[in-house]
Design brief:
about 80 residues, mainly alpha, 2 helices
Length: about 80
């Protein structure tokens, strides 16, 4: 089922790129368009770098922040695991 949905999405995008999208008024609004490559590429790269630095900061400064507290209980060889 997921492959069928993915195929339909790809077909939809192909047809959309061939004919172009339309607006209800029918006017051409090329002035409002933003070029994809310089704007969104830079925006995505900056967002990815910020998230990578935040993840690195979290994992390098507080590595046990999201860990399970039971991992810090010393092992007792006389008690079997539950």
């Amino acid at each position: 089922f997921p492959f069928i949905v993915a195929a339909l999405v790809i077909i939809h995008l192909l047809f959309l790129h061939q004919t172009g999208s339309n607006n209800p008024l029918g006017t051409k609004s090329n002035i409002d368009k933003i070029p994809f490559h310089p704007y969104f590429t830079f925006k995505d790269i900056v967002g990815m770098l910020i998230m990578t630095f935040m993840l690195a900061f979290l994992t390098l400064n507080t590595p046990y922040l999201l860990g399970d507290p039971d991992n810090f209980i010393p092992a007792n060889p006389l008690v079997t695991p539950i």
